Amino acid sequence: MTITTKVMDIVKDKMIIVQHSKTENICLVGPVKLPVKQGDFSAVFQWYNWLKMDTSLSKEEIIDGLASANLAFSQQSSVLVYGDFPHTDDALIRMHSICHTGDIFGSQRCDCGYQLHESMKMIVEHGCGAIFYLADHEGRGIGLFSKSLAYLLQEEGLDTVEANHALGFSDDTRSYEEAITVLGALRSKPVTLITNNPKKLAALKAHGLAAEGHVPLWGGLTETNSFYLNTKVEKSGHIREEK
């Protein structure tokens, strides 16, 4: 199917090509107005999506190749932006790892769904910020299928770290370089990170994140995730503190 000139012009205008490395660019698309409602909470965010690509590709070539790219067979990351993100001096950001079970199904084995929804509320209350939803971070980077196997091991008594190690993975294989590149395209001023993990803040700073500090997001404790949360504190360096 041929893409008309009118359609090409509309979508091209919402695409930004950002250099990510010598061989790869990131194509950032947006903003899309996204009204969100969760119970009593409602807000309108600006939604962006991005795709890593070869530096040789133009916007036109990306659009022409969409139908044959099979993007539904892979995951793409995105970011929800609230307020005047480029210009406001103080902005909160959350680097949120996708959690199919917690974010979508409401699983109580973790606190991921709680953290996602609470960080959205925190950003709206603050007046400015962004939530980076990182699609290749499932199970701290091991993927959904491997995560299901890790869950089976956890049901036999292993904690999250031990289960990942038992399957041949490191404790945490997540990378944040793409998200930092996208953040730089949307905002040049420093940010404050929403996290309970100061090690995560230090790692992000080491990869170029301009952050002034962090604010905690602790909560969502249940009988079924207390072991998981304790492991975060004891083995992953999280600080148990209320926001």
Can you tag this structure with a few keywords?
243 residues, alpha/beta, Rossmann fold, eight-stranded mixed β-sheet, 10 helices
Look at the structure and name the CATH superfamily.
GTP cyclohydrolase II
Major sheet: arrangement of strands? 1-2-3-4-6-5-7-8
Strand content: 15-25%
What is the name of the CATH class? Alpha Beta
Number of domains: 1
Query: H/E series, N to C?
Result: HEEEHEEHHEHHHHEHEH
Overall 3D form: globular
Number of DSSP helical runs: 10
Structural class: alpha/beta
Low-confidence segments, given as residue ranges, are none
> Residue share in helices?
25-40%
**Whole-angstrom Rg:** 19 Å
Q: Give the CATH topology.
A: Rossmann fold
Q: Which CATH architecture?
A: 3-Layer(aba) Sandwich
The count of strands amounts to: 8
The main β sheet shows up as: 8 strands, mixed
**End-to-end gap:** 52 Å
Give the averaged pLDDT, no decimals: 87
Report on this structure.
It is a single chain. The protein is an alpha/beta fold and 243 residues long. It has a single domain (30-44, 73-236), classed as Rossmann fold (3-Layer(aba) Sandwich), CATH 3.40.50.10990. The chain contains ten helices and eight strands. The chain has helices at residues 5-12, 59-64, 100-104, 112-126, 138-141, 144-154, 160-166, 177-186, 198-206, 226-236, and strands at 15-19, 24-38, 41-54, 78-82, 92-97, 129-134, 191-194, 211-215. An eight-stranded mixed sheet has the order 1-2-3-4-6-5-7-8, sandwiched between helices. Strand 1 and strand 2 form a beta hairpin. Helix 6 packs across helix 7. The protein is globular, with a radius of gyration of 19 Å. The N and C termini lie far apart (52 Å).
